[in-house]
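worker-03 picked up job from queue 'complexes'. Input manifest follows; two sequence lines, order preserved.
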Amino acid sequence: AQSVTQLGSHVSVSEGALVLLRCNYSSSVPPYLFWYVQYPNQGLQLLLKYTSAATLVKGINGFEAEFKKSETSFHLTKPSAHMSDAAEYFCAVSDRGTGNQFYFGTGTSLTVIP
Amino acid sequence: GAGVSQTPSNKVTEKGKYVELRCDPISGHTALYWYRQSLGQGPEFLIYFQGTGAADDSGLPNDRFFAVRPEGSVSTLKIQRTERGDSAVYLCASSLEASLPNEQFFGPGTRLTVL
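worker-03 finished. Artifact:
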């Protein structure tokens, strides 16, 4: 089965600063990769997904992520943090050939300091 | 349009009781998934349906857990003889079909507390 590692359970950035949330997967075959955001008392919302097209993926709310096969990584970035970005972020992977269930990381809680 | 809905939003029960959690997927979505999210953890896969049939139930922790989707739309997750360790947020998601790489749309979850 796939596994996902999100380094840093809590990340704090100043408003306007770069956001970098890390995600590494374990697989010899590049999987499909997703980033979801979860606001308090709300469901998971898709930010972006990698499906083997362009390695640099742009998502909603100014977020983007780059798939790096050599590093088995799919880190999430945003050039300038907004207060509204404060939320829990989850990286997820799905095997290409064995089904559609997602395997999630443990999440990173992002705090934006004014 | 309407998203995935789950009822109830909160459920408090006593150890040993039986509970049912309901999920209404987005209309037209043939694939439906159940996940469990414990405090401080990411969602953990339980089961998914393609139409009426359970295509993969490998994530169900034991035989106290069961899920159905009799008409290929609404699904019910059933937990017998609940234990305190079952306390978690149960998430439901749906997608157009189970073939990748379709986005899964998540509901707000049902928070289950077993006293």
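worker-03 released lock.
Chain A is about 0% helix and 50% strand.
Chain A touches chain B through 27 residues (CB under 8 Å).
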